[in-house]
Design goal:
Radius of gyration: 26 Å
Strand order of the largest sheet: 2-1-3-4-5-11
Largest sheet: 6 strands, parallel
CATH class of the largest domain: Alpha Beta
Number of strands: 12
Length: about 350
């Protein structure tokens, strides 16, 4: 009888073959792999030797169906980029230590944020889900509730219950940035985001900036608020600095935008911080090595990641969710200075 194989031509080794080589029953071999404390050391060694010899890899889907536990946690993120790298690293390490494997998907926009990615995760029998940077749409929320998949939203904002979220205090951060710049004598500020900036981050940073400026009877005119992809930043700077009253300080919605602005400003002959002070957001590893070193709003990825995993593990254990708001610190470096005279 021909052995059953996969589409790629590789033959899948079964638990029955492991059991036969170890001279034990299939049930005993399965118990040795899934509950090693329930069998003797000598039996564990025999099964382990058979696994190594045959190159057996457990079928996680079959295991999930038989035990109702897949040992998998999924992550849905807007994009795989430097902004999410440290956050993912922290969460994956914590979950690995708790005995969970992880799946990561960056589904992008599909008309229902995260809907397609959530369906794919549910098909793989994930036990829990961490959704980063986007609020679940109607389809995704209904699916997760129907499948009873616990989830936590990270840096997502929106209208979802606060109890399910780990948020970042962007509004307070924006206000602190504005007050700091006003204290340096700046009276003309600008704000730069990108088309891919989270609307939650953009809107709260703007809210905070406006509040900080309003405390000194200053405003942030609409013409100094722009959303630019990287290739468009030079044009935005040129428009601002050929106008009658160019901004003397700029807050960027992320560090990558700030880095591009530093470069484009240098090409246009705009001195930083002599003519333009720049603040980023994130405090990514390169920020301190930029020229000049970048002042930024530090998002504590380790704290955010640990808080998210704590909440998810609590929910997986049957506990009630409790939201958390993570503070942001203003890190002052050489890209900011007194307003030009």
């Amino acid at each position: 009888m021909r052995r059953r194989g996969r589409a790629d031509g590789n033959v899948r080794i079964t638990i029955a073959e492991v059991a036969a080589l170890a001279a034990v029953s299939t049930a005993t071999a399965s118990r040795a792999l899934n509950r090693p404390g329930a069998v003797s050391a000598s039996l564990r060694d025999r099964v382990a030797a058979a696994v190594a010899r045959l190159g057996y890899v457990p079928n996680q889907t079959a295991r999930a169906l038989s035990s109702l536990h897949s040992g998998l946690v999924g992550f849905l993120i807007p994009a795989v980029n430097a902004g999410y790298a440290e956050l993912l690293e922290v969460m994956v390490a914590r979950l690995r230590a708790a005995g969970y494997a992880t799946l990561v998907a960056a589904p992008g926009g599909d008309g229902d944020p995260g809907g397609g990615g959530a369906r794919a995760m549910a098909a793989r029998e994930v036990e829990g889900l961490v959704v980063v940077g986007t609020e679940p749409g109607a389809t995704m929320g209904a699916l997760l509730n129907e499948r009873r998949i616990p989830y936590v939203l990270v840096d997502a904002g929106g209208h979802t219950s606060l109890a399910l979220r780990v948020d970042v205090s962007y509004a307070v951060a924006g206000e602190n940035a504005a007050r700091y710049l006003v204290g340096l004598g700046h009276r003309s500020l600008a704000f730069l985001s990108s088309p891919t900036t989270s609307p939650w981050r953009r809107d709260l940073l703007l809210q905070g900036l406006r509040a900080g400026l309003a405390a000194s009877d200053l405003t942030l005119p609409s013409e100094r608020i722009r959303a630019c992809a990287a290739p468009e930043i030079r044009t935005a700077l040129r428009l601002w600095f050929t106008g009658a009253a160019p901004p003397s300080a700029l807050v960027c919605a992320d560090d990558l935008l700030a880095l591009v602005t530093l470069r484009e400003g240098a090409l246009l002959g705009i001195a930083v911080p002599g003519q333009l002070s720049i603040i980023g957001c994130g405090d990514l590893p390169f920020a301190r090595y930029a020229s000049p070193a970048l002042s930024t709003l530090r998002i504590p990825s380790v704290t955010v990641g640990n808080a998210a995993v704590d909440q998810l593990l609590a929910r997986l254990a049957g506990g009630s969710p409790c939201g958390q708001l993570i503070p942001v610190k203003l890190v002052i470096r050489r890209s900011t200075g007194p307003a030009p005279i």
